[in-house]
């Protein structure tokens, strides 16, 4: 019981001494470098007080006052720590100030080797933020904006340099390995200065220039594809070879029974009136300086027997009809018999 009372008394005493002491309001300021700043120091009972500061400082007041204002028209000291004090330094309170400065410039670049970018190679992206304070509050995000406008966050970085208050240049780096889908995309970095609830809302953001990417990659045949087909004799064969690739690929067709050293330099093969001898493998080569891609179409030429069968059938029918006609007409029969049979017919 005694202990509880003692503790209660003790806390009451502490509250009392706290209340007796100075109150700085606002206790925290976030000020843009060069802007005005102001805060009040107050006491419940009138006291002689002063402000110790590199800018806007004031010595002890001649009279006892309950409130003393600290004010500067243009805050330029990066390490400003205005402190309100009473006579003899019995009590003092420091105003918590953050002086900030937005970056002069945010830029993105990459180590250009090989240039332009090549699929699968690793590149070092570098985001440079010039003349920013305080650098510990800066968050840098790398973004990729695809050719279709879709934005993807690649990485966010922040430096733990809370003790640095003067402007700094910040370099942020990221390894980037482009794929073929990244051709035509844009890269950028965005610097956001997050100064907390006392800072400007929403937190100021500054974007870098946009880096256009030109990604080189080896061809990949998209059509006609690698397959087997059959075509009827006499029909027209048309094969159009096309591939994705950067730089744009060039095409060659290797035709069946052709010397592998003599390729047709074009993307389309057209053969009218296909013959059996045109059967075989038709191979397309798509190439650019980064490599090549091939696809073989196996073509089988089939003979169409239907017209032949129909023709033969018609011929047989005609012959039969003619024979019957001749044979069924007596004069003809006689003529026929006399003309063709006497030599073999003994009557
Ligand atoms: C300081 O106190 C004065 C008088 O009460 C008031 O007018 C002023 O707005 C206060 N300044 C700040 C920064 O709170
Ligand atoms: C100033 O205020 C910030 C944010 O509330 C806090 O993180 C920091 O520690 C304070 N600095 C001092 C010296 O009290
Ligand atoms: C930041 O970079 C700029 C331009 O390169 C330079 O003029 C300036 O001195 C640098 N500042 C610091 C703090 O290194
Ligand atoms: C071949 O295909 C490509 C892509 O599909 C097309 O642009 C081109 O016009 C075609 N060429 C011919 C001769 O059909
Ligand atoms: C065509 O290529 C296939 C393999 O892709 C092979 O098996 C076949 O023998 C080739 N045909 C001719 C006629 O060369
Ligand atoms: C295709 O590329 C391969 C290596 O990927 C190479 O060995 C071959 O000679 C190339 N062929 C042609 C026809 O360029």
From TrEMBL:
Keywords, ordered alphabetically: Disulfide bond, Immunoglobulin domain, Membrane, Signal, Transmembrane, Transmembrane helix
SMART domains to which the protein is assigned, alphabetical: IG, IGc2
SUPFAM superfamilies, per database record: Immunoglobulin (SSF48726)
Signal peptide, first to last residue: 1-19
BP-aspect Gene Ontology terms: cell adhesion
Region of interest (Disordered), residue spans: 153-177
Ig-like domain location: 219-302
Membrane-crossing residue ranges in chain numbering: 305-329
Composition skew (Basic and acidic residues), residue ranges: 156-165
InterPro entries: ICAM_VCAM, Ig-like_dom, Ig-like_dom_sf, Ig-like_fold, Ig_sub, Ig_sub2
Alphabetical list of PANTHER family matching this protein: INTERCELLULAR ADHESION MOLECULE, INTERCELLULAR ADHESION MOLECULE 5
Protein name: Ig-like domain-containing protein
Species whose genome carries this gene: Oncorhynchus kisutch (Coho salmon)
Lineage, highest ranks first: Eukaryota, Metazoa, Chordata, Craniata, Vertebrata
């Amino acid at each position: 019981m005694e202990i509880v009372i003692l503790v209660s008394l003790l806390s009451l005493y502490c509250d009392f001494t706290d209340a007796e002491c100075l109150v700085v309001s606002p206790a925290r300021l976030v000020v843009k470098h060069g802007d005005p700043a102001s805060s009040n120091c107050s006491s419940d009972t009138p006291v002689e007080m002063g402000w110790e500061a590199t800018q806007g400082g004031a010595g002890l007041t001649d009279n006892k006052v309950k409130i003393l204002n600290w004010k500067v028209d243009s805050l330029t000291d990066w390490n400003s720590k205005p402190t309100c004090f009473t006579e003899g330094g019995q009590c003092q309170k420091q105003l918590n100030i953050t002086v900030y400065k937005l970056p002069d410039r945010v830029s993105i670049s990459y180590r250009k080797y090989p240039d332009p970018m090549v699929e699968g190679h690793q590149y070092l992206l570098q985001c440079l933020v010039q003349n920013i304070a305080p650098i510990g509050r800066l968050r840098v995000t790398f973004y990729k904006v695809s050719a279709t406008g879709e934005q993807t966050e690649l990485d966010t970085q922040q430096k733990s340099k809370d003790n640095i208050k003067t402007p700094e240049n910040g370099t942020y780096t990221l390894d980037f390995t482009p794929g073929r889908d990244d051709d035509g995309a844009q890269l950028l970095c965005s610097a956001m200065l997050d100064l907390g609830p006392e800072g400007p809302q929403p937190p100021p953001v500054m974007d870098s220039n946009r880096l256009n990417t030109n990604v080189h990659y080896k061809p990949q045949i998209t059509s006609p594809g690698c397959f087997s087909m059959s075509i009827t004799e006499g029909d027209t064969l048309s094969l159009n070879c096309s591939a994705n690739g950067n730089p744009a690929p060039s095409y060659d067709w290797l035709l069946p029974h052709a010397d592998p050293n003599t390729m047709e330099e074009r993307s389309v093969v057209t053969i009218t009136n296909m013959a059996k001898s045109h059967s075989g493998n038709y191979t397309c080569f798509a190439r650019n300086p980064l490599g090549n891609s091939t696809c073989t179409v196996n073509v089988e030429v089939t003979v169409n027997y239907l017209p032949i069968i129909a023709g033969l059938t018609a011929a047989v029918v005609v012959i039969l009809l003619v024979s019957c006609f001749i044979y069924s007409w007596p004069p003809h029969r006689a003529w026929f018999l006399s003309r063709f049979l006497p030599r073999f017919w003994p009557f």
